[in-house]
Amino acid sequence: MELYHIGKQCATPDCHQLDFLPFNCHTCKKSYCLDHKDFQHHISCSRPTAAAPLPCPKCSNPVNGTSPYQTKEYSESMIQAHIDNGCQTPEQEAKQRKMVVHGGAFVITSVASIDGDCDLNQKRGKTMPVYDLQIVLTWKGTDSSGAHASGQISIPEFMHDSEMAHIEMVIAVDDKKQQTAVRKGVIDALIPAVKEVLASFKWDMVAENTKPAEKNSPTPASSDKKENPTSPSTVPPHQAPKMDPVWIGTPTSATLKVKTASFGLETQFACTASDIYDSFLNPERVKIWTRDKGVVLDPRPGQELILFGGNVSGRIFELVPCSKIVYTWRLKSWPPSLQSSLVTLLIDEFDKVVRVRVKHVDAPVDEIAVIKRNWEAYYFTPIRESLHILATIPKVTAVVASKPLVNAEEYERISKSAKTTAHDLNESHDSKEPMSFWFAVLYIFLFC
């Protein structure tokens, strides 16, 4: 039963809803319902609809939905909600709403974590995204009996060249008793929706990172640019837009200087030295623990190696059977001006355990923390978990080191790095190491 003598009707022409607690506009003196209380719905209001939104006191960006003509309480609540949401722009808020994937009785509630590398490269005038991410999503929903369920979806490897059909997604259910009842529903409802969002990630990444650069670029289009179209525009330091540093294009060593440093790692494996030595050099074994069928590896000095779909490349420099492996190492995302790192693996066998020490020379300082994590996540842990499978694959014949087949400039740099780090690498080695050290000195003296 409606009581027409109580409350007021909404002034919106297509609404006229009777509201017992109407919202009164201070400008047009009319009443509106809850759905039409915002000023953009006031068709008959004489207020200027183009009034600028109020700025956020924290980030100074305009807050969507606020206006000088709104009530003070309403504007303050909108600003507070904007701050609680991380001071996101309207475009970011819309993107976040799009990322909340619904699938029937299940929904992705949040992104628990994102880890890995993400860069933009420019090749032949085209901006190419390069990324290798590990993503963890949280979900919730109801099973067939109506009971509430929740869990996580882990994506251990999401790369720029990954095919959506081959992306691995691990589904975890918080309550193990609901594993059977919920798992199929999550696969049918959420997995296709998540893949649909991930399929547009690379293009969204390019759009989000190139538009601000074009918008904030202080270099106008002029006739000077036509005279030398191949030279990149220069930006004065005081006019440079505030953007996260990314390597774009092919800068020279004169324009881009990256500070490098060295670091060391140590781990242990429950196997023999020959098992570990072969696991790093046997192509069939490497394909298993890298999960990369396109591995390029010839276990001979001077030969090229390509791992993880081309994201890691290098050239073998020195091999001492079951004891030492030296090779160059670089990421695909590094600019050409950045020289390759030098990686040395020292293998020591003890009673029922093998110690592997890694010396990583000339790594970018800003990426050392990430590279350390990736050594554990992409090398040590997969090998350790795959030892029982690797043991079934016949070992390759160990090759004694000879003069590397590399160009003179790269060989000279590697030899110099080997000289400067030889003492550190052999300081904690066993009694056989001093002989290996003098052998290396004699080797460098004869062939360099």
From TrEMBL:
Keywords: Metal-binding, Zinc, Zinc-finger. One of its GO terms (molecular function) is ATPase activator activity. The keyword Ribonucleoprotein does not apply. Residues 73-211 form the Activator of Hsp90 ATPase AHSA1-like N-terminal domain. The keyword Zinc applies. InterPro entries: Aha1, AHSA1-like_N, AN1-like_Znf, ASHA1/2-like_C, START-like_dom_sf, Znf_AN1. It holds the Pfam family Aha1_N. Residues 209-246 are annotated as: Disordered. GO terms for cellular component: cytoplasm. Belongs to the AHA1 family. This is Activator of Hsp90 ATPase AHSA1-like N-terminal domain-containing protein. It comes from Chytriomyces confervae.
